[in-house]
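Subject: sequence -> structure tokens, single chain

Hey, anyone have a minute? Need the predicted structure for the following. Not urgent.
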Amino acid sequence: MSEHPMIVVHPAAEDVARQLGLAPRLPSLRGARLGLIDNSKHNADAFLHTLETILTRDYGIERVERYRKTSPSIPTPPEILARLAESCDALVHGVAD
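Reply:
Had a minute. Here:
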């Protein structure tokens, strides 16, 4: 028997679910500032481009700020989320395949 103890760890992260409420609905998108997060999966950029075109043309979005993640498997950095929360009225996180 070995004199060195073996420690077995579970490789999965332990997420603790938090209950969050929805943000209040904007009265209108006209003049709003929209944030778009592209998760970098295939076709996410095409989806978000089409969404941006429609929301700008048909609903009067005034400004769009985009952020593209380097990998779909990593979370959006907290400083990016904070910046978008400060500078945007609405945010869409695009996921596609």
